[in-house]
Specification:
The protein has 13 helices and 14 strands. It has about 350 residues and is an alpha/beta fold. Strands 1, 2, 3, 4, 5 and 14 form a six-stranded mixed sheet that branches. A four-stranded parallel sheet has the order 6-7-8-9. The mean pLDDT is about 95. The longest helix has 18 residues.
């Protein structure tokens, strides 16, 4: 047993001053108190910062960890896709596996307990099988039906479900088939990461130009006027959604989505958005409207680290206790985790240093 004291304890959107937490030898919380004088508390370690719950990385691409530093900062959404196609086959399987294992260890060392991970193949599952982290894997479907069949083969792995990639990369029939096959499981969908996604539905912008240059015809463009309209039309209201990125989402979009769906969690990855395009998601608007929010990192192809805490600190327009709640409870709830996302008896904790509450 040991006792851990700190300046603050941040959990469930609240701040506790002068916390004194007793931990078992396994690091599990057995008591939560407050200290007055630490010299009267034997076996106490003081942490200059805050005690928070273990964190949840609600959106990650672990399999892209080997691409750290390979995609230039500021290349934009279209530039990212272009660079990714050029460099992703230049690394051996051994290099990719070492990078994934290192990324997994780094998340665990930081205080992450749960990861919502996107997979396009089977390479990440060996790392997950040996990990101390709890993973929910979203087998991502995009393009044509052969990708759906390939993604479906990943369902043999634990805690793995299907999800559509986005509202712009799947024909309606395949999109709806994925939704049907995912009945009872949450969907994790890249959503309004760039302005080009909304422009596509007007026949404008970079995505529309790309589709025309490839000779592609996408049926949903003749049926819907916006990505929001498509989600509402093609996904049942009771289906749980994790909508990821949301850089170009509006208040009207949020109101329509939350009015239609029983459960929508908006997953924010500000470090990735800043790395690629310098655009930040509207965190303050989502906070003001009382939305369910979680925090993700995206991948090391589009961010310098998989630090959930670094992403929390970027949300400067949101009170820190709220951002911490998003990074803990918000993700735990959205992923149906066994972790509560709270500092509570029976749970483990994380320690963070940089805390500015005012």
């Amino acid at each position: 047993m040991k006792k851990l004291a700190a300046h603050y304890l941040i959990s469930e959107g609240e701040v506790m001053l002068r916390p004194l937490v007793t931990l078992s030898d396994e690091g599990v919380v057995v008591a939560i108190e407050q200290w007055d004088r630490l010299d009267s508390e034997p076996l106490t370690v003081f942490h200059s910062g805050a005690i928070i719950p273990q964190m949840v990385n609600a959106h990650c691409h672990l399999e892209l960890s080997y691409l750290r530093g390979e995609i230039p900062r500021g290349c934009g959404f279209a530039g990212f896709a272009s660079h990714l196609r050029r460099v992703r086959d230049a690394f051996s399987r051994e290099q990719r596996e070492r990078a994934m294992a290192a990324a997994d260890r780094a998340m665990a060392a930081e205080g992450v307990a749960v990861v919502g991970d996107v997979a396009n193949g089977d390479e990440s599952f060996s790392t997950k099988a040996h990990s101390h982290l709890e993973y929910h894997t979203f087998a991502e479907v995009f393009g044509y039906r052969d990708n759906l069949e390939q993604a479906s083969q990943l369902l043999s792995y634990p805690r793995t479900t299907l999800t559509p990639h986005s509202c712009y990369s799947l024909q309606s029939g395949i999109f709806q088939d994925v939704v049907r096959r995912s009945e009872g499981s949450p969907l994790s969908i890249h959503f309004l990461e760039s302005a080009a996604e909304r422009e596509l539905y007007r026949g404008e912008g970079a995505l529309a130009e790309w589709y025309r240059s490839m000779g592609w015809e996408w049926d949903f463009l003749s049926h819907y006027s916006s990505p929001v309209e498509r989600l509402i039309a093609e996904i049942p209201p009771h289906q749980e959604l994790l909508l990821v990125h949301n850089c170009f989402i509006t208040e009207e979009d949020v109101e329509r989505l939350t009015a239609h769906f029983t459960s929508v969690t908006f997953v924010l990855c500000p470090a990735s958005n800043d790395y690629l395009s310098g655009v930040m998601p509207p965190a303050a608007m989502l906070w003001r409207k009382g939305c369910k929010v979680a925090i993700g990192t995206d991948s090391l192809a589009s961010a310098e680290s998989l630090s959930v805490w670094d992403n929390v600190l970027m949300l400067k327009d949101v009170p820190l206790p709220t951002a911490v709640r998003w990074a803990t409870e918000g993700g735990a709830r959205a992923l149906h985790s066994s972790h509560s996302g709270k500092v509570a008896i029976g749970e483990k904790i994380a320690l963070v240093d940089e805390v500015h509450l005012l």
